[in-house]
Amino acid sequence: MKRYQYPVEVHAHTIHSDGQFTVEELIESAVSFGYKGLILTDHNTSAGYLEMPSVQAVKDEDIITLHGIEWTTYFGHMLVHDADYDVDWREATPTTIDKYMFEVQLANGLVGIAHPFDIGSPICTGCHWDYQVENYDLVDYIEIWNSNQPQEKSESILAYEFWLDKLNKGYEISCSAGRDWHRPDTEDANMGVTYLELNEEKLTQDHFKDALQNGQYYITLGPTAYFTVENKDLLFQMGDRVHCSMLEEGKILMTIKPTELEALKDFELENIYILVWNNDQLIFQSETNKELSGELTSNFTLPNNLSAGYLRFEVRGDYRGTKDTPIIVGNPIYLRE
Ligand SMILES: [Zn+2]
Ligand SMILES: [Zn+2]
Predict the structure, then answer these.
(1) Which residues contact 27 (CB under 8 A, 6 or more apart)?
(2) Domains defined along the chain, listed by start
(3) What is the pLDDT, as a whole number, of residue 122?
(4) d(Cα 158, Cα 117) in Å, to the nearest integer?
(5) Residues 6 or more apart from 93 whose CB is under 8 A from it?
(6) Minimal CB count within 10 Å: which of 116, 254, 287, 310?
(7) pLDDT tens-digit profile of 201-236?
(8) How far is the CA of 333 from the centre of ligand 1 (A)?
(9) Please, what is the average pLDDT of the chain?
């Protein structure tokens, strides 16, 4: 089955909160960057979304948009996407956040923890995640890369480890990249990009939301990745939930390609290699490739003793002078007993 990938941005602001973009400017910037999808997440308001349907690129379906909001509180920032109504967050406290997340779920919204390790007070009140979530099944994703140059930030490493800890505890939870876009960037800025992977040739609002909810996406500093497990004529991909036995002795097929996004083409990428984990066990590491000039493919056969939990891939390398850093982080295929 042919698969289609769509670069999207799920964390962006306008003049309806503290961004510099008008709604129209944000959409135009997103289209020219190459995004196929965009979620508006102003601080504590979704008002800007009302302007979106009248923007030409939205009318023309050059870009698919969803509404959202960034709960901006003293105890953390939380992204809520496409809820049927704005759940009232104002009474949420560090020990009652589960109740509010559950209400978002009842309203068919998605929950993402934004920049969990950003510096909090007095630099940025509430930017650090201080909520004590009891049940991480209520969280759809953790934003492990926030804003520009995520590869240079210690917060990215802490957030990545925070995400892995939840995965290793058995939660089905994705990692995301949020540009936290507020204003036009300088030319030397690089950012993490979220790529949805779908079987559908056309992105719709429903596919956009479903892919985010199911974890059918990876995040990247540029290159694109195709990661598939093929077994007995069946194909499995990120976001699938399958029995371990269905993947055992299956063949992993991976293809990495240079970025297709103009703004990211010139950044230096070296010493690239691929890693695959079954839970916290590293089960495959490719050779290191000096550079990524064309397609890089890597295949291997999975063992016959996979453990329940997850299977996930990563591409690492040197990026703009940061050594041995995650370049692509794939969301898991979840394995059940
Ligand atoms: Zn924030
Ligand atoms: Zn934000």
Answers:
(1) 38, 52, 55, 57, 58, 63, 65
(2) 4-217 (3.20.20.140), 223-336 (2.60.40.1930)
(3) 80
(4) 7
(5) 75
(6) 287
(7) 999 999 999 999 999 999 999 999 999 999 999 999
(8) 29
(9) 96
Ligand 2 centroid – CA 46 distance (Å): 13
Listed residue (133, 142, 144) closest to 100, CA to CA: 133
CA of 20 to the centre of ligand 2 (A): 13
Residue found under tokens 């269905």: 246
Tokens of 250: 């299956």
Q: Give the distance (Å) from ligand 2 centre to CA of residue 143.
A: 11
Is there a contact between 303 and 331 (Cβ–Cβ < 8 Å)? no
The confidence score (pLDDT) of residue 136 equals 97
pLDDT tens, residue by residue, 105-160: 999 999 999 999 998 878 788 899 999 999 999 999 999 999 999 999 999 999 99
Q: Which two tokens stand for residue 153?
A: 């930030």
pLDDT score of 98 more than 80: yes
b/e per residue 2-33 (b: at least 16 CB within 10 A) = eeebbbbbbbbbbebbebebebbbbbbbbbeb
What's the rounded Cα separation, in Å, for the pair 239 and 192?
20
CA of 100 to the centre of ligand 2 (A): 19
Amino acid 119: pLDDT: 87
Cβ atoms of 82 and 66 within 8 Å: the answer is yes
What distance in Å separates the CA atoms of residue 21 and residue 13, rounded to the nearest whole number? 7
Distance of CA 70 from the midpoint of ligand 1 (Å): 7
Q: 312 alpha carbon to ligand 2 midpoint, in Å?
A: 27
CA distances from 325 to 170, 206, 260, 315, 317 (A): 25, 33, 20, 9, 6
Give the pLDDT band of residue 316 (cuts 50, 70, 90): very high
The Cα–Cα gap between 23 and 16 comes to: 8
- The tokens describing 92, both together, are 């949420």
